[in-house]
Design goal:
By secondary structure, the chain is mostly helical. The protein has 15 helices and two strands.
Length: 361
């Protein structure tokens, strides 16, 4: 059947082509043989390309049918494995989409657009993609040796939080793992406040020293300070003893986990990484202020709060909007030389929000 259709297509195409004007004269001579040969070649090319497209569509449809049957079988017989399988497939789709989006943003930046001039969503996409790739590289390196991919699958199954990026987490795992990371981050709230109390003793201005101590005491007693109370001590975070380049290394080691950065590095590297991430966060805040927090979807809003230190999974949307509004009031008032205060605000605003219950040391 396919052969007869192909021959019919050849015949019809040839008749249609031969119906065109064939009397071409070159240097006064008629050459019908050359004209007919060129038309036959064109006809065969036209027919073979159509056949190839038809075969491609047929193979694609059969593969899709086989894949749907396989997924249905897994869903009926092995529902838990199907959930992992489906999560991985969707994860790779999301990762592929992110890669295309990042390429487009990089091409845009290559024309002279700077990172701080990008829209908020593009800035956040670049930031998150970079962090995901840093986490994924060790897993890729492990899987390079022959047959090592079997070991990788075992590790991925038993250690998904440590090895996989969020694209490959199930919805339940995303909530669970964010809770784990937030609890690890919350462990450093008390040491950061104690470090601030220690640094307050080195402040020469008596009024600023009192304000900083009162701010720490208020958070330690389970209350959330006002934006005005936080901004009242901003001068202490642009120079000694709490400026980004003036903080003690021990204090910076407790601030690093607030941004999910390792504290197990030399002091000068910790300071450089903290400054880089703090400036990036300040630029994100400025882009978010230009966009308007009300433009964020519910998931984007919760992710924005989580990035800035708040465990947003247990909060309502209105609570997240209220908290993010307070954060942006602080952030929009700061200069780049005062970004150290932005990092400490992760403790001031999120440690007791929204319950106000005193937390354990």
């Amino acid at each position: 059947m396919a052969l007869s259709c192909s021959s019919l297509c050849n015949h019809l195409s040839l008749v249609r082509l031969c119906g065109l004007r064939t009397n071409r004269t070159t240097s006064g001579l008629y050459s019908p043989y050359v004209s007919c040969q060129s038309r036959l070649a064109l006809c065969r090319h036209y027919s073979s390309s159509k056949v190839r497209r038809g075969i491609g569509r047929y193979v694609t449809s059969r593969l899709q049918w086989a894949n749907s049957k396989y997924e249905g079988f897994l869903q009926r017989r092995f529902p838990r494995f199907y959930l992992l399988y489906h999560t991985f497939v969707e994860g790779f789709k999301l990762l592929f989409q992110d890669t295309k989006e990042v390429r487009r943003i990089k091409a845009k930046m290559s024309t002279g657009v700077k990172f701080q001039d990008l829209p908020y969503r593009e800035m956040e996409k670049l930031r998150q993609f970079r962090r995901n790739m840093i986490k994924a590289i060790p897993l890729v390196m492990i899987s390079i040796p022959p047959f090592a991919n079997y070991l990788v699958f075992v590790l991925m199954y038993f250690f998904p939080r440590q090895l996989l990026i969020p694209h490959f987490w199930t919805p339940m795992q995303q909530v669970e793992f964010r809770g784990v990371y937030n609890s690890l981050r919350a462990r450093h709230h008390w040491p950061v406040l104690k470090g601030l109390e220690y640094s307050s003793s080195k402040v020469k201005d008596g009024q600023l020293q009192t304000r900083l101590k009162d701010l720490c005491t208020k958070v330690q007693n389970g209350a959330t300070p006002k934006v005005s109370e936080i901004l009242a001590v901003r001068r202490l975070f642009s120079g000694p003893p709490l400026g980004m380049k003036r903080m003690r290394v021990h204090h910076m080691r407790h601030i690093s986990p607030l941004l999910f950065l390792t504290p197990r590095l030399p002091g000068f590297l910790i300071g450089r990484r903290l400054n880089s991430h703090a400036l990036e966060l300040l630029q994100l805040d400025r882009a978010l202020s230009r966009l308007g927090p009300h433009q964020l979807s519910d998931s984007e809003l919760k992710q924005a709060c989580y990035l800035r230190g708040l465990n947003s999974d247990n909060l309502g949307i209105n609570q997240c909007r209220e908290w993010l509004s307070q954060w942006l009031q602080v952030s929009s008032s700061l200069k780049e030389s005062e970004v150290s205060l932005l990092l400490h605000t992760m403790v001031f605003l999120s440690a007791n929000y929204p319950t106000g219950i005193k937390w354990s040391r």
